Amino acid sequence: MTNQKESRPDKWTELFSLLELSVEEQKAAEAYLDGKEGIQVLEGISFRDISGIDPKPVKQMFNELIRKKEKAGLQPVKADMARLFQLLFARGKATCHEMVPTEIFRILRPTEWADPVRMTATHGVSIGALSYLHSYWIESVLELAGNDPEVIKQAITLVEDTFEKGDLSCLLTIFTQSIKKNASCQLSGRMPNFFLPMRSLP
């Protein structure tokens, strides 16, 4: 990330420690975060469930980037946000969902900076974990997916946890059934307003 030379080592050390990256994985991650290597360098990072890790330090990094965009401008900061998200996903896939503030997904949409399938999977797991679900949250997932059921289907394959995979599948079911039953959805692409108890869905 740019213009953070003084604070970078401490931040990277804490982040890499939280993610429990090996020495080789740390080298790959640093090269990617610094923009020296493309996303392909992250392919060597192995999967690990990071849902049990304290999300606050990583959320703070994202929040600092959100504040930074007021001074540096949105475009360069978008790239930094996307790199951080892509690293988290490379390590933990959708188990990183608690580390990523919802606002990050809004900022990165449309997603030329990050893979929409990965973002849909991660945000979808967060939304699926809610006890009651308003149509606004469903819309936020569908917008990341470009209102494309195929993107959601691909996102489901990236979710490791069976229970969370079921929650995301429910979102796909709700989406497809609503389109069939509501002519207004076909015209506007918007979901009707409702609340749903997600964990009670079949």
Widest sheet: strand order? Answer: 1-2
Structural class: mainly alpha
Task: Give the distance, in angstroms, between the N- and C-terminal Cα atoms.
Answer: 43 Å
Strand content: under 5%
Mean pLDDT: 79
* Number of beta strands: 2
**Helix percent band:** 55-70%
- Describe the main β-sheet briefly: 2 strands, antiparallel
Described by its quaternary structure, the protein is single chain
Pick out the low-confidence regions: 4-8, 183-202
Account of the protein in words:
This protein has 202 residues and is mainly alpha-helical. 61% of the residues lie in helices and 3% in strands. It has helices at residues 8-19, 23-33, 56-72, 74-92, 102-108, 116-128, 135-144, 149-157, 162-181, 183-188; strands at 132-134, 195-197. A two-stranded antiparallel sheet has the order 1-2. The radius of gyration is 17 Å and the shape is globular. The chain starts with 7 loop residues before the first helix and ends in a 5-residue tail after the last strand. Mean pLDDT is 79; it is low at 4-8 and 183-202.
Care to give the gist of this entry?
The chain is an all-alpha fold and 202 residues long. The protein has ten helices and two strands; from the N terminus they run ααααααβααααβ. The chain has a two-stranded antiparallel sheet.
Main attributes?
61% helix, disordered C terminus, 2 strands, single chain
Write the layout of secondary structure elements.
Elements: H1 8-19, H2 23-33, H3 56-72, H4 74-92, H5 102-108, H6 116-128, E1 132-134, H7 135-144, H8 149-157, H9 162-181, H10 183-188, E2 195-197
Antiparallel strand pairs: 1-2
